[in-house]
Design goal:
The chain is mainly beta. The protein has helices spanning 21-40, 352-364, and strands spanning 2-4, 7-9, 42-49, 54-58, 63-72, 76-81, 92-94, 97-100, 109-116, 123-139, 143-145, 152-161, 165-170, 173-174, 181-186, 189-194, 203-210, 215-223, 230-231, 236-237, 242-249, 256-266, 271-273, 277-281, 286-288, 293-300, 308-317, 320-321, 328-332, 341-342, 346-347. The strands form 7 sheets. Strands 4, 6, 7, 9, 10, 12, 15 and 16 form an 8-stranded mixed sheet that branches. Strands 20, 22, 23, 24, 27, 28 and 29 form a 7-stranded mixed sheet that branches. β13 (165-170) and β14 (173-174) form a beta hairpin. The relative contact order is 0.10. One of its GO terms (biological process) is homophilic cell adhesion via plasma membrane adhesion molecules. InterPro entries: Cell_Adh-Cytoskel_Orgn, FN3_dom, FN3_sf, Ig-like_dom, Ig-like_dom_sf, Ig-like_fold, Ig_I-set, Ig_sub. Residues 44-124, 135-223 form the Ig-like domain.
């Protein structure tokens, strides 16, 4: 091989004299370009900063990763997070720097920098982010229903780094494990199990969690009383009657139900709740042993058509009355218009008048049942 000026000549190039001048010129140009690319192209290489490949920081702190690259042509660089999205919510972000503002515990993991320039295969480097944070505690249920002779489980879900210590309290007194009181851990879930529940076991419990960075706690109530009823009826009904239906958690049968309901006279600028009707009833119940839930219903009659009503439900078992349900509101249809109910498809859709009235109630902030006047 020899060179003339900046042109590279190959052995056997004289054979090009046997072809046309134009074709020979194109062939020389192609050969020259090929060798130029071969001699001066460099596949990508990367260097991750910091060189240790690991960053340890506290929750809320800013973090920056840098990916230095070499190669010809200049490589393009993009960042991604292994097994997840970047904190920005994107799959990838382009650029040599990746800045994370106020990192959260969910941001911990392995971040990858990938460089490519079309020469050879793309190259990837990794850096691990370790986030230290104070305990974050939540509960599966803040209220647990049980009864004498039964078993109760109280669960706290704990996230903490460094690992945290978990202590259980009943009414401010620290608890210790016994044959009847067990404390266990499964992953992030810490469980206090009380066997053969007795009357003194009812009350307020707390799980207190602490590590070297901070402390957190959550409360759980263990009670033999029913839980607050959850009203599951529709928000609109026939003109003069309403099938009120609710679900309540109680391991013991419900022996009495209190129903409070009233009519609300309301328009765009006027809101006046009527007098409460107070009923004590004993409806039948369907018990689900898997969830300790009891389903009940009661039909309210003598309602006024084309009106807004609201109600509260409170249930009682052998341990006493539970808490009131959340306030529930519904709309009765106009006289002569029946709302067809079907077990599989539910009820017909509400009209515009119903939606307008409910919007008005929301705007006025109807909280009278809780003792607050809008």
């Amino acid at each position: 091989m020899s060179t003339t000026g900046s042109v590279i000549m190959l052995p056997g190039a004289r054979d090009m004299q046997n072809i046309s001048f134009g074709a020979a010129k194109q062939a020389k140009l192609a050969v020259t370009l090929y060798f130029y690319i071969s001699l001066f192209s460099v596949p990508p290489s990367i260097q991750i900063l910091p060189p240790s490949g690991q960053v340890v920081t506290r929750k809320g702190s800013p973090v920056s990763f840098e990916c230095k690259v070499n190669g010809n042509p200049t490589p393009t660089v993009q960042w991604s997070k292994k097994d997840g999205l970047l904190p920005s919510g994107l799959q990838v972000e382009k650029g040599y720097l990746l800045n994370l503002n106020e990192v959260q515990r969910q941001d911990a993991g392995i971040y990858q920098c990938t460089a490519s320039n079309g020469i050879g295969q793309p190259v990837t480097g990794e850096i691990r982010l370790h986030v230290l944070y104070p305990p974050e505690v939540s509960v599966l249920r803040s209220w647990v229903n049980s009864g004498e002779g039964l078993e109760a489980k109280l669960d706290c879900i704990v996230h903490a780094d460094p690992p945290a210590e978990v202590m259980w309290y009943q009414n401010s007194f620290e608890l210790q494990p016994t044959d009847r009181r067990l404390m266990s851990k499964n992953g992030n879930t810490y469980t206090l199990t009380i066997r053969n529940v007795q009357l003194p076991d009812f009350g307020n419990y707390s799980c207190v969690v602490s590590n070297s960075i901070g402390r957190d706690k959550r409360y759980i109530e263990l009670s033999g009383k029913p839980g607050p009823a959850k009203i599951i009826s529709s928000q609109y009904s026939n003109p003069h009657e309403y099938d009120l239906k609710w679900v309540v958690q109680s391991v013991f049968p419900i022996i009495e139900v209190r129903i409070l309901y009233r009519r609300i006279m309301v328009n765009i600028s006027y809101h006046h709740p009527g007098q409460w009707h107070d009923l004590l009833v004993k409806p039948s119940q369907i018990y689900n042993s898997a969830t300790s839930e009891r389903t009940q219903r009661y039909r309210l009659t003598n309602l006024q058509a084309d009106s807004v009503y609201e109600c509260l439900v409170q249930t009682k078992n052998q341990h006493g009355y539970g808490e009131l349900s959340d306030l529930h509101q519904w709309f009765t249809s106009t006289r002569g218009r029946l709302v067809v109910q079907n077990s599989s498809i539910g009820v017909s859709r509400p009209g515009r008048q119903f939606l307008a009235v409910l919007a008005t109630i929301t705007a006025l902030g109807v909280l009278a049942a809780r003792g607050v006047q809008a």
